Amino acid sequence: MSSTKSRYQQNLRADAARVLFQILEQGMSARECLPNAQQDHNEKDKAWLQEMTYGVLRQLPLLQHWLRLLLDKPLKKNVKVVEHLIMLGFYQLAFSRVSTHAAVSECVNACAPLNAIATKGLVNAVLRNFIRQEMANQLPDNEQILSGQPKWLYKKLLSAYPEKHTPILDAMQVKAPIWLRVNQKQKSTDEYCRLLDESDILYERQDEQPQGIILLKGCDITTLPGYDEGWFAVQDGAAQLAASLLNSQPNERILDCCAAPGGKTCHILELEPDIACCVAMDIDPSRLQRIEQNLTRLGHQASLICGDASEPSAWWDGEQFDRILLDAPCSATGIIRRHPDIKWLRKSSDIDTLVTLQAKIIDAIWPLLKPGGTMLYATCSILPAENQLQISAFLERTADAALDPEFNNDAIDKPGRQILPGEKHMDGFYYARLLKS
Questions:
Q1: Which residues participate directly in catalysis (predicted)?
Q2: Is 259 annotated as ligand-binding?
Q3: Residue 416 belongs to what H/E stretch?
């Protein structure tokens, strides 16, 4: 009995269906549930689970369209997970190189470990109908479904970017590359590139990120030269711009607000090791531990504070900062290509809530900045309400705040720089630099 149970537990398609069910039906993030599904598998199977899960999440509207055409009625709650198993089968048949026989038979076999043996015939019939009717070639005449985005987000992007929405939507469906940031405290970028050359690891560089390297092929990051020694960190190219835009100087006090997981904190310390003090704060104790782990691996030191950015009176010591990086809580719509579960966990109503929270935080943190100091506002969002409109509103209501025109066409009515997904291989990101008079 135990061997049968073990065999069932190791069924990859059943595990993938459970993860999809937890994300789409129970509202769990992939960061919460995917590692649990992967823990009993080898590295190859772990990668397969992520690839298939993320693939279904990217193509979900189309897979749901096919499901509605081929499934007579929705399945009941106790076997609802089987719908996700069927969509996994659709994804394999339409978008992967697996054989049709394997896709069908393995999905049918996955019914048992999902406690849905009675649905074996249904799963077999639906998948074989998918093949027989050549459904993979039957695409609906509906741009929203083909975009892979939920209706609410599709409409917001269409409104915000009427002339650019198609390439933006396309870029959001493409798997994001792996960016490294070389720890200048340990190695120069040129030195680390030579190590990659010696290991026959293909990469490219971008002028805008002097410490950045883009890997041209996926790999296990922990096997790269110098991982344990802290010679590099994984950080997208857009996020790598934060430390240089903050432009910290020797003997300054720096606050990295909402700092987890600490990539930007470490980069600030690498670019200017002679700052007087770097404080990294975050509201989540567990995420604060991740900052500490990253600081330790990379060989940096910072003061860590657990606190609510919207209520600094509870944690601030009263001494103002020369520069503040405010990486505000946001919709994360700019990193959907990297975390496709985001678009199914967010709702349209969340945006208004986030905009209100962002405004509360920036108003609360502004008094912590010295006169003459600089605040860099950042999000990984591509929605104007969280970015340009947020900063324009802040400038209008804040007498001692001024826009530091760092970017081309930087203006009060359209402040900051909006990086779109895929631009120079970067994630979607927004920056605005503000000066305190």
A1: 380 (nucleophile)
A2: yes
A3: none
373 among the known binding-site residues?
no
Residue 360 and residue 258: Cα distance in Å, rounded? 14
As given in the structure block, the two tokens for residue 164 are 């650019």
* Six token digits for residue 66: 């096919």
CA distances from 44 to 41, 52, 55, 215, 223 (A): 8, 12, 16, 19, 15
Give tens-digit pLDDT for 13-24: 999 999 999 999
- Whether residue 274 is annotated as binding a ligand: the answer is no
pTM: 0.94
Answer yes or no: is 264 a known binding residue. Answer: yes
What's the structural domain count of the chain?
A: 3
Q: And the tokens for 313?
A: 């009176």
- Answer yes or no: do 412 and 379 share one domain: yes
Q: Which pLDDT band, with edges at 50, 70 and 90, does 408 fall under?
A: low
- The position carrying tokens 């920056």 is 431
Name the phi and psi angles at 18, rounded to 5.
Answer: -65, -45
Active-site entry in 33, 266, 278, 380: 380
Query: Does 246 have pLDDT greater than 50?
Result: yes
Catalytic-residue membership of 277: no
Residues 199, 295, single domain; the answer is no
Q: Which amino acid is at 94?
A: A
Cα distance between residue 48 and residue 55, in whole Å:
10
